[in-house]
Amino acid sequence: MLAALIGLMGAANLASSLATSFAVVLIARFLVGIAVGGFWSIAGGIALRLVPEHQVARATAVIFGGVETASVLGVPTGTFLGDLSGWRTAFAAVGVLGLTSVVCMVFLMPSLPAEQSVHLRDLPAVFKANAALRLALTLTFLVITGHFLAYTFVRPILHEHGVDDRATGVLLLVFGIAGICGNFLAGALVAKSLRRTTPGIGVLLVAAMAALALFDTNVVAAGAILMLWGLGYGAVPVTFQTRILRAAPDTTEAASSLFVATFNFSIALGALAGGIAVDHAGPLSVLWLGGGSILAALLILGGRARTPRLATA
């Protein structure tokens, strides 16, 4: 399944590079979305099948480290290739990388036969039956929506503080590098205390957004704030995926599917709501809205911590 999904992603990107009309590009991008969403619904929890239980948190950090690293390197590399020889070359390169990944999966990954069958009708049943999973998905929704409410518009926010485009690029690189560090730091921390790591992420994100909204920052101060923000957000995927796996150890595939669906829906909703807010109240407004969403997650987490069964999830 993993090889088929990544093969679809690679083929769709190659199709984009050869497209003769915009409609073909749109169809290819739609297929890429299906492939990536399907891939992460499985890959996010696959550490359980690959390593001993005591190494799951760190293995999950390694898996999501690929996402963080790609986020830092992918966009500038794609831009460089596009500027060098056109956008088709960038799409073709991604397609070749995808097909190379398929070869690696086929020859390097161990055989992982299905342990149980998961049907579409199982998803609402798993959601309804598991209170800890519902809590984890609620936290995911609030934190990811809050993050993308603000981060989608980080460039105009920095412009409001007088940061020019050249410096903005460097600051976004700082954010990405901090995200990689946050990912692996979280991989070590969640194995020791998931209960403390989750609210710690929220505090970092809220503090960074509030600082960027309240203070008239220069480039150095903005860099420090984005480093803090990057550390917090970089820790989100591995921490929340671990929370999902611990909440539903017997239904990991179904729970991971719900997690990926919630994650992607929250990205879209956050960007949409942020766009509306920017149009009506200016760029800085999204920092307050995003921070408010994450603060709501912290309040829910604080209240639920009094319930022992949910607090340990």
What this model shows, in words?
It is a single chain. The protein is mainly alpha-helical and 313 residues long. It is 83% helix and 0% strand. α9 runs parallel beside α11 and α10 packs antiparallel against α12.
> Uncertain segments of ≥5 residues (pLDDT<50)?
none
> Pairing-aware structural class of the strands and helices?
mainly alpha
* Quaternary class: single chain
Number of strands: 0
- The termini sit apart by 29 Å
Please state the CA-atom Rg, rounded to the nearest Å.
20 Å
Question: What best-fitting shape do the alpha-carbon axes yield?
Answer: globular
How much of the sequence is in beta strands? Answer: under 5%
- Following the backbone from N to C, one meets helices and strands in this order, namely HHHHHHHHHHHHHHH
| Mean pLDDT score | 87
Main sheet: strands, sense, barrel: none
Helical stretch tally: 15
> Helicity, in percent?
over 70%
Quick summary:
The protein is mainly α and 313 residues long. The protein is 83% helix and 0% strand.
Question: Which key terms come to mind for this protein?
Answer:
313 residues; mainly alpha
Give the topology, please:
Elements: H1 2-18, H2 22-43, H3 47-50, H4 56-85, H5 87-108, H6 122-129, H7 131-151, H8 154-160, H9 165-190, H10 194-214, H11 219-234, H12 236-247, H13 252-281, H14 285-304, H15 308-311
Helix pairs in contact: 1-2, 1-5, 2-13, 4-5, 4-9, 4-12, 6-13, 7-12, 7-13, 7-14, 9-11, 9-12, 10-11, 10-12, 10-14, 13-14
